[in-house]
From TrEMBL, chain A:
Complex I is composed of at least 49 different subunits. Residues 1-25 have a biased composition (Polar residues). Residues 1-37 are annotated as: Disordered. This is Acyl carrier protein. PANTHER family: ACYL CARRIER PROTEIN, ACYL CARRIER PROTEIN, MITOCHONDRIAL. HAMAP family: Acyl_carrier.
TrEMBL record, chain B:
It comes from the Eukaryota. CDD domains: Complex1_LYR_LYRM4. This is Complex 1 LYR protein domain-containing protein. Residues 9-65 form the Complex 1 LYR protein domain. It comes from Penstemon smallii.
Length: 144, 90
């Protein structure tokens, strides 16, 4: 699992930037290091990394539901057998788009590639409509 | 001969073949595997004859074995240079 503070590219990367000014307060740091001994220096590091961790744990690692929905829609629309004009956010693969079960499997594979997931067969068989796909991917912790 | 495969078995085989295709390091072989499985499964969709369906399924399974072994062999000798099709277009 990659550490969450390296996640600055997804969502607001601003958080990691904000921490710099307080750290660069040279006066305080210098006095702490030359000062009273190990306890103080260690505490600076702990509070720094504690705030760091605090700010990054409040940052949502998950993808935005809208972003997931948009990307899923793009994948479905770029599937050659699908007519893009018929794709609505609650479309059913077999009933509305006239696809068959082989096409459903192909679409789920394309979604796996898009979001870098591995969907087990049992779950994949249940995904047969757009809202289900969005729901599954949104709830998956490893989606990216 | 053998009995016809069930629907879920067929879909499972289809999925396994596509997953194995992804493991290939060579772009051409990967695309071919994907294309060929899709074409083959689609052609054989209409087979209602039990014996024919069972034969096609057995053929599919042996091809899956071939693909898996070949994926390993290809990865041993994978070239460092990627195919032009895999380079992200700007």
């Amino acid at each position: 699992m990659k550490p969450s503070y390296q996640n600055s590219e997804s969502g607001n990367g601003v958080q990691t930037r904000n921490l710099k000014p307080s750290y660069q307060n040279k006066g305080d740091l210098h006095s702490e290091i030359t000062g009273r001994g190990n306890g103080v220096g260690f505490e600076i590091h702990r509070t720094f990394s504690a705030t760091f961790r605090l700010m990054s744990s409040s940052h949502d690692d998950h993808l935005d539901k809208k972003e997931v929905a948009d990307r899923v829609l793009d994948v479905i629309k770029s599937y050659p057998k699908v007519d893009p004009s018929k794709v609505t956010p609650d479309v059913h693969f077999q009933k509305d788009l006239g696809l068959d079960s082989l096409d459903s499997v192909e679409i789920v594979m394309a979604l796996e590639e898009e979001f870098k997931l591995e969907i087990p067969d049992k779950e994949a068989d249940k995904i047969d409509s757009l809202p289900l796909a969005i729901e599954y991917i949104y709830n998956h912790p490893m989606a990216s | 001969m053998g009995s016809a495969p069930t629907r879920s078995e067929v879909l499972s085989l289809f999925r396994s073949l596509l997953r194995t295709a992804r493991e290939f390091s060579d772009y051409n072989v990967r695309e071919y595997t994907k294309r060929r499985t899709v074409d083959a499964f689609r052609d054989n969709r209409r087979l209602s004859n039990q014996a024919e369906a069972a034969a096609a399924f057995a053929e599919g399974k042996s091809q899956l074995g071939v693909a898996k072994r070949q994926a390993v062999v290809y990865s041993l000798y994978a070239p460092k240079v990627k195919s032009i099709m895999e380079i992200n277009h700007s």
